[in-house]
Amino acid sequence: MEVKFAEFSQKWLSLLVSGAIGLVALAGVVTMQGSERLGGMAGVATQGEKNAPLPAAVVKQAVQQEALRLQLLKSLPTFGFNNLIADWTFIQFLQYFGDDEARNVTGYNLSSKYFDVITKLDPRRVEIYPFLAVSVSFYQAKPETTVQLMERGTNALSPQIHPDAWQVWRHKGLDELLLLGNARESARSHEMAADWVEETPKGKQLAPAFRSTAQFLRRDPDSVPVRFAAWSSVYYQTNDRLVRRRAKEALLRLGTQVQKDKNGEERFVLPPRSN
Fold this sequence. Notes:
Number of strands: 2
Largest sheet: 2 strands, antiparallel
Helix content: 55-70%
């Protein structure tokens, strides 16, 4: 099984390790609610002989059961463990998303359900939103759902709560521009990203760029240079093969030329447009 998110956040690892004591308490809650009803997808990977592919019917049944578990998580009491249950659900998502063989059978339809639970319980966890953007927008092809779930983050966060909260606005703006074609909302999201990043250490570098993007989108909603810059950032900021392929296809449709640097890495150049 190839885990698609190769650069798993070190911050997440430290959070999970430091939360070990809390997870023991959470385990008690889960036990009271029924471990079989909240068990996640782990059983799919351990059934049958090692490395032997599971029957499609078994995989589909496991996904149906997991969908019911996620539905229960939305309605069951959390006993004050919202953040820990959100972290636990995120771990289950990583296990689900990284199981390529199973996803080839069932697709990625549970991705939005995982993040529905996660963003409902802990919308202030900034680190999960890039995962949301990739898994739901690109793999599930539901950018409108991504934007709705990201609004939980933009409503709950602020620069005072988390210095990287601007990233949620930025990801929202990219989905609105590149996948939904809503330049007006994308301009607003980029302006909000600029406002939120202004007073952070990255403000001098990023705030002017975000404001410039918003201005360009208001003047020219179909701006090729803005879309080129946005798709380029999507391409270079991910190691995911599917996302890179789709970003490259979009860049080529814009008339981009592909060149190779001295290390053999692809770089994209937008030729000057004729007037």
